[in-house]
Amino acid sequence: SHLAGYDADLSYITYNNASHFAPDPSTIDAARTWAWMKALHNQSKKLKIPLLALFVDRSILNVLKDANVASRRDPTWRKLRRSPGHDSHVHVRIGPAAGWTGRRMSEIKKRLDL
Q1: Residue 92 φ/ψ, nearest 5 degrees
Q2: Strand residues in the chain grouped as ranges (E)
Q3: N or C: more exposed end of the chain, with fewer CB within 10 A?
Q4: How far apart are CA 14 and CA 9, in angstroms?
Q5: Which residues share a beta bridge with 14?
Q6: 48-86 pLDDT, tens per residue?
Q7: Residue 19, exposed/middle/buried by CB under 10 A (0-12, 13-18, 19+)?
Q8: Would you place residue 91 in the very low, low, confident or very high pLDDT band (cuts 50, 70, 90)?
Q9: CA distance to 53, 84, 114, per residue, from 10 (Å)
Q10: CA distance 22 to 30
């Protein structure tokens, strides 16, 4: 799925911008990580790119719940999938999007105003 371009591993947001991809939930800034996950979800809707799932370890779900930054009723929470081994990164899975498939990088950058 990574090779097909539909999956990516991204670091959680950590305190002092340290310990990226290090499996230690105590270094994760829960509020900023949750805001980042919501931004991923919102941008996927805006760009009409289906966000299928955000795979995270149970320990990360606990960090988000314990910090009282995430609600189970939030549409972004419903994208979270418990997946062992994803305590050091979030595994993002998107689906094919009609408006983006087969585009060259130059076209994508132009469309995104980069």
Answers
A1: -95, 130
A2: 7-10, 51-56, 80-82, 90-94
A3: C
A4: 15
A5: 28
A6: 889 999 999 999 999 998 888 888 889 999 999 999 988
A7: middle
A8: very high
A9: 13, 16, 20
A10: 15
Alpha carbon distance 97, 21 (integer Å): 29
Instruction: Please identify which residue in the block is written with the tokens 């469309």.
Output: 111
Q: Name the burial class of residue 7, with classes exposed (0-12), middle (13-18) and buried (19+) by CB atoms within 10 angstroms of its CB.
A: middle
Residue position matching structure tokens 């314990």:
66
pTM: 0.82
The two structure tokens encoding residue 82 = 């418990």
Task: For the chain, give the mean pLDDT.
Answer: 86
